[in-house]
Amino acid sequence: MAQENKQDKAAPEEAEAEASSANGAPGDDETEEDSPVDTSAEPLVDLSGLESAAALSPDEDPVAVLEGEVASLKDQLLRAIAETENVRRRSQREREDSVKYAAAPIIRDLLGVADNLQRALESVPEELAAENEVVSNLRLGVQMTQKELMSAFERHQIRIINPLGEKLDPHFHEAMFEIEDPEQPAGTVVQVIQAGYRLHDRLIRPARVGISKGGPKAAAKDAPKAEASQAEASQAEDKGKGDAEPGSTVDTSA
User: How far apart are CA 233 and CA 236, in angstroms?
Assistant: First the structure.
């Protein structure tokens, strides 16, 4: 009997709990309605221009202010477009150069091979090769190898720089010494120690050369003195003619 009374008392309590959970706790709706709204989030649209226009003094024209802001934004946009175009062109040029000059490191390594082939040919004179058939065949093989290498250089736009007889160009030539040669203009390449090379328009190795010293440059330096002496002699001759009597002959042989 006691257990049945306890169950009868517990049943109404469970029913009340279920009813309260179904209807919701009192005060929940009021809490949700009274909760503050977060207004710290950034607006989706930039209203700075409207705020500046709204904050104008009565003497200022809002249309003029807005036109100035539009002009400023337009200038910024044009500058950004120009900068983007410059970056694009620079990137394209760098990409083209990287492809165009990609073989430069390998070419520098092959230049030593070309130099050794040339030295081998210079070390064996043609007279000696004509006397010995073995030496002649060896020299011919070196010549053919050098010719094939130079042909490969030409196909890949690798140009040799051999400036013998040309004026010294510091962009492509490296002067190693000077030679006294009065028959050549000063600064003329009179000897090529080592040929230079360039890939397209980029220098790979400058030509090492010897240049002339003196010559016409020294003569040009003394030219003003010679001209001054000649002018003085001419003036003295004219003065002597002026002092002579008409019809007389002035002896200038002294």
Answer: 5
CB 149 within 8 Å of CB 114:
yes
Q: What is the pLDDT of residues 8-59, one digit of tens each?
A: 544 555 555 554 544 444 444 444 445 555 555 555 445 455 455 555 566 7
Instruction: Report yes or no: 209 and 170 within 8 Å, Cβ to Cβ.
Output: no
Nearest to 164 by CA among 207, 218, 197: 207
CA 158/CA 151 separation, integer angstroms: 9
Q: Which domains does the chain have, with CATH numbers?
A: 159-235 (2.30.22.10)
Cβ-based neighbour number of residue 56 at 10 Å: 13
pLDDT score at 48? 55
- The count of other CB atoms within 10 Å of the CB of residue 176 is 12
Distance CA 195, CA 11 (A): 112
Query: Kind and range of the H or E element at 208?
Result: strand 207-213
User: In this structure, are residues 152 and 177 in contact, taking their beta carbons and an 8 Å threshold?
Assistant: no
Q: Is 172 exposed, middle or buried (0-12, 13-18, 19+ CB in 10 A)?
A: middle
194 vs 196: CA distance, rounded Å: 7
Encode pLDDT of 202-251 as tens digits. 999 999 999 998 765 544 444 454 455 455 555 545 544 444 444 444 44
Global pTM? 0.53
Report the Cα 188 to chain-centroid distance in Å.
30
